Amino acid sequence: MKNLKDKMYKAMAVATMTAMPAVALADDADLLGAVKTETGGLKAGVLSIGAVVVGISIAFALVRIGKRGADSVG
């Protein structure tokens, strides 16, 4: 497990070190704007997925509460 964790950290470091110079050396504002636009779209996607997950968990909690109430009546 530790070996896998070490490999993951090394892969993340390589990905970061590969991507950061491209952003830092981008003297063209269009590239930086594109990165910001993609990041904004990603945020919206993550928020929408989070909203769906929260909605599903609330639905499961309501069903569980309803089952407890039905079991206590009968």
TrEMBL record:
This is Uncharacterized protein. The chain crosses the membrane at residues 42-63. Residues 1-26 form the signal peptide. It comes from Neisseria musculi. It comes from the Bacteria. Keywords: Membrane, Signal, Transmembrane, Transmembrane helix.
